[in-house]
Write a structure and sequence with these properties.
two-stranded antiparallel ribbon; 37% helix; 4 helices
Length: 171
């Protein structure tokens, strides 16, 4: 009978019952899930995290790393519009500070054999959201590959700066 659930279990499809067809499928599905779980576990266990020292002698004693490497991903500390030779924020407002912050990022990336083209994510902190258009004008000249970006304003940026940018890069 077509609507009876008892008869439905014994219905034959191409000479085999549903159980005969579905049982091997369950084994294959289980096998695929196990391989995925084992691969994910292996990837997580084998990823070394390296805390790189700064390439700048004056920042060697800082309580953070300029770059932290996890596998082929590099997480860079925020860079400001600071001239690291004088340890002062550059003059000229948001556009000059943006240029300097990006030049500082380029220097850290170069220490690890990368360029701005390796950047996949930027986080930008502005001291004043009204500076967004002026900042963006400079930013667009450097980040031509258009990495993902988050931009927000904070009450203040360290050293009375106008901007701080941190990035994630993939090598």
């Amino acid at each position: 009978c077509p609507s009876c659930s008892i008869c439905d279990k014994n219905r034959v499809i191409l000479g085999k019952t549903k159980n005969q067809i579905m049982k091997p499928f369950h084994y294959v599905l289980f096998f695929i899930l196990m391989i995925g779980t084992m691969t994910t576990s292996q990837a997580q266990e084998s990823t070394d995290v390296i805390f790189h020292k700064s390439h700048e002698p004056k920042k060697q004693s800082a309580p953070y790393s300029d770059a932290v490497q996890a596998g082929n991903m590099y997480f860079l500390a925020g860079q400001m519009g600071m001239d690291h030779t004088t340890r002062t924020v550059v003059d000229g407002g948001i556009q000059k500070e943006t240029e300097q912050a990006i030049e500082n990022i380029k220097a850290v990336l170069a220490q690890h054999g990368m360029t701005l083209d390796n950047v996949v994510k930027c986080t930008v902190i502005l001291a004043d959201i009204e500076d967004f258009a002026a900042f963006n004008e400079i930013y667009a000249q450097y980040f031509t590959k258009k990495p993902a970006r988050t931009t927000f304003a904070a009450k203040a940026v360290p050293a009375n700066g106008n901007i701080e940018i941190d990035v994630i890069a993939i090598k």
